Amino acid sequence: MGGAADRATAQADLSDDERRVRRAAVLPLAHKALICYGDLARYAELYNEASVPAAVAAGGHGDGARREGGRRGGKGGRGAAAAAAAAADKRVKTYSKAAECYNQARMLLPDNGASFSLSLLIVFCSASRSRRRQRLRAGNPSNQLAVLAQYCADPLSSIYHYYRALSVRTPFSTARANLQITFAKAVARWFSSDGGEPEGDEGVKFRAAFVVLQGILYTKDTYVVPSLPSSPCSARPRSLQLTLEPVLFPLRLSELPTLSLRVDDLFRTVLIDRIFTSDVVTKIVVTALSALWDARISRSSAAGQSTTTLSRTKTGSAAPQQLATATTSAPPGQAAPAPRVNLEPEALVHLLSLFTLLLRTSATETVELFSANLAAATTAAPPTPANPAQNISAVLRRALPALRILTKWLVAQLDYVERVTQRLEAAERKRVARARARGRPSTGTGTMGLGGSGGTADEGEGEQHEAQQPLSLDSSGSRGSGATPCAAAGRVSLAELEAALDALWTAYADYANSIKLAFPSAALDGAKALLANGGWLEEDVELLGFAPLRRAMRPADGEVVDTAGARIRRVGRDVHPNDEQLMRIFEGQQDALLLADSSVRQLPPARSFSRRAPH
Question: Under a CB-based contact definition with an 8 Å cutoff, are residues 483 and 582 in contact?
Fold first, then answer.
């Protein structure tokens, strides 16, 4: 007892800075211990003989069912029937204990321990006094959560957590390989002879199509064949001797427009029919944000790597990999490796489409419910007092967390969206100029040459350096147009990006007007007070350390770990769910004003926010 009292007295004598240093010193140990505890709980449940996977209990054939059911089931129908009968007497496997440990570890070090306060950096500087340095992997808990999702045959949650493991300040490198394998299996299964859209409701179909679309954006399944004058895309020469001007023949990229339209149609249906909960809708938009972030990071890192590769050639080393591909003969009957492809514009258009659908659906539902409530209130005797929470429809309730996330991203990334548009516009002007210089028809999308530049290796060192850049904005052509149909198939044009932005701004103006009509500012004083008191929401906690939204959501700048931790513990306890939704609505109105006043991509006067009902 005396020792405990002495330790408590010593703790009380510590200054705030010393207490933070000691706290941060044990964070890596606690983080690692929680992951280990989660692994132990996962293994205990995985090899528990008294339980069966959820897919087996439901009569499905998920990955987890194949993994564990295949070890005991006998051959033929009798073995399957016996296994099903045995599974009926066992409880369903649950990995809740492991998931809780992983989630606690993820929140403890959301992005390598420096998310709340710069004072935590003092610890890592002092810890480096020892010669042995431990590199923390902040994405490891999310990778383990993805493994749990695979056990439950939930590919949407699996790719969400894998992306979360990569979208932090210190990514978990193993998650990239796991994500590649997951996407490759999904894409191969979809495009197999007996694949395609699975049976089931629209929710099942959307999950499958969405995962495949994300898989194409991530894996970039392409290869290179020679450029043959006036030859159709399907022509396959017997001798695949590559020329200096190969053509990118898309295996899957040509499916992007059709698949994107299908995903949009299914997403609209699942929103209107309320098939998904708010958590699932949030996972969908965060996954799309992660895909865009990954494409953006890949483009930047590839540009830096290509400069190093070019400097090596000056010293007499081997030629760059992309140029070597262009001048190397491929074995007969095989395609040459593809140059790097970056689908940043495609990922951006996909994200904007999801955002637009959420805005349109929410605006329509809000106006309909507000009109019905208004008519009921005017005919009631005596008139009932207005309650703003009554105007929150079931669809809007599911969409508000995702809308808040996307709006925060848009406010913080307006300049980025503008830069993508400008780069795409400059790339198309460059292709037109090169096509004219070579006497080719000026279609706006020239033949996709090596690296998307359309040039040969002897056009100067500047052209050679550009040829090593990933096929990103410079290779984006109009879908199905251009001098080479194969090259342009599946790529986003400037006109398509501008059309997606115009649709987004129109939908956002309608949504903002409907929200302003149904939820006047005077009715949101309570939500304003909760936010002024530093209130957090569930998505703030879920997205701690999420790199694409850094400095866009909680914690606020200057908020220290002790204060943030106390507010995190109050999420979902002290505030009524309706008040939480009103907090999101109030923040959305404030963000709408920021967007309207922005000098970047400012809304035209015809689309400015007003009290008019959306058309």
Answer: no
Model pLDDT for residues 602-615, shown as the tens digit of each residue: 454 444 555 444 44
Q: Please give the radius of gyration of the chain, using alpha carbons only, rounded to the nearest integer.
A: 27
Q: Which of 117, 122, 116 is nearest to 544 (CA)?
A: 116
More confident site: 562 or 180: 180
d(CA 18, CA 25): 10
Most confident of 198-212, 229-243, 471-485, 531-545: 198-212
Check if the beta carbon of residue 340 is closer than 8 Å to that of residue 239: no
The whole-angstrom separation of Cα 568 and Cα 562 is 10
Residue 341 DSSP code = B
Q: Looking at per-residue confidence, does 199 or 119 come out higher? A: 199
Specify the 3-state DSSP secondary structure of 21: helix
Confidence band for 88, pLDDT divided at 50, 70 and 90? low
pLDDT score at 375: 86
Q: Exposure pattern of 570-579 as b/e (b: 16+ CB <10 Å)? A: ebeeebeebe
Q: Is the dihedral of CA 422, 424, 428, 430 positive or negative?
A: positive
Answer whether residue 458 shows pLDDT above 90: no
In 200-297 the beta strands, taken as DSSP E runs, fall at 222-225, 247-250
**d(C-alpha 120, C-alpha 136), whole Å:** 14
Residue ranges of the alpha helices (H) in 114-254? 120-127, 140-151, 155-166, 173-190, 202-219
Residue 157, SS3 per DSSP:
helix
| Residue 244 identity (one-letter amino acid) | L
Question: What are the CA-CA distances from residue 255 to residues 246, 508, 527 (Å)?
Answer: 21, 29, 45
How far are the Cα atoms of 229, 360, 364, 516, 524 from residue 614, in angstroms, in the given order?
Answer: 52, 10, 8, 11, 21
pLDDT digits (tens, 9 = 90+) for 559-596: 555 556 666 766 767 789 999 999 999 999 999 999 98
Where b means 16+ CB within 10 Å and e means fewer, 59-95 reads: eeebbbbeebbeeebeeeeeeeeebeeebeeeeebeb
Q: Residue 476, SS3?
A: coil
Residue of 442 and 292 predicted with greater confidence: 292
Q: What single-letter DSSP state applies at residue 315?
A: T
Asked which of 110-119, 396-405, 550-559 is least confident by mean pLDDT, the reply is 110-119
Alpha helices per DSSP H over 47-73: 54-57, 63-69
What b-and-e string marks burial along 581-591, b requiring 16 or more CB atoms within 10 Å of the CB?
A: bbbbbbbbbeb
> Which residues lie closer than 8 Å to 266 by C-beta, 6 or more apart?
202, 205, 206, 209, 210
Strand partners, 249: 223
Decide: helix, strand or coil at residue 92.
Answer: strand
- Alpha-carbon distance 151 to 130, whole Å? 40
Mean pLDDT of 151-156: 93
Q: Which one-letter amino acid corresponds to residue 102?
A: Y
Q: Give the single-character DSSP code of 153.
A: T
